[in-house]
Amino acid sequence: MSKVLRIGTRDSQLAVWQATLVQDLLKQAGHASELVYMKSEGDVDTITPLYALGVTGVFTKTLDAALLNNRIDIAVHSMKDVPTQMAQGIREAAVLKRASAKDILVYKDDAFPERLGYTGKGWTDLSSVGSHTHHLTTSHTIATGSIRRIAQWRHRYPGDRTENLRGNVNTRLRKLQEHEWDGAIFAAAGLERIHLRPERSIDLDWMLPAPAQGAILIVCREEDDQAFTSCQHFHDRETALCTHIERSFLSALMGGCSTPISALAMVKESQVFFEGNIVAPDGSTKASVEKTIPVTEAGDLGIRAAREILLNGGQELVDQIRKTGLAADGQG
Question: DSSP assignment of 191-250, as one string?
């Protein structure tokens, strides 16, 4: 008789939703399981900006330690929170089918999107009018704990201010209402999964997401074949391919967890469409890369894209990021 699999999860509403989804998928495949709740370092400290914590895996290492200590059998992570170099003794058991990879803006004033250049049908191409003239006389305040989102927002809206925003999605939505901020940035998947996306929100189609944003990763111990096999029933190969391309792009550039580096790979008609960028932390400069190749040739696409962007302005930005010591960016 197979054992009851112990599923490790953070205790936030979103994390529990993700773990419960995995529990349901295991049940459908005929495997019994139970949830084991924990708090990560990132959950305990909700004040310090993520990049100032100075560690990778701030949301994942507590669960990984429990896994290696045999307190749990599998751990469920938001894949974008997982360091590109996983802990020794841990392997990927499954990647679930991806939800939306987009970032969204939650705002208070109905007129705010128009002031940003959103027409209701899409975003104005500010490159045609000059990014420094987008809202002329008004400076806005946007809240986010993500250095990647800060960098991209400042690149598009250099006159705006950003404020640090930490905590689970429920806490961040509440803080937005309590503070004199114009809006805050969230991952679409996080709010949509637990049905918390406000009516006053819009997709930031111009903002490239974090590598593996919107995907859920399940990990297990390397030697635990039962846990691995149990999760293979719902492993999504297309999502795995795309997220691995994005994470290899990140790894080839920085070798660590999230930074002002963004990437998105998508499969359409047997082709992989890839876009990546690096943005200076202050938003002043950006280097980008786009590539389209057949799925059959996409195994090393992330590495190839990283090499290309380094030769086209990316190396100077990577050096700048390393000097600042910026690191974690994992929160949705």
Answer: HHHTT---SSEEE-TTSPPPTTTT-EEEEEETT-HHHHHHHGGG--HHHHHHHHHHHHHH
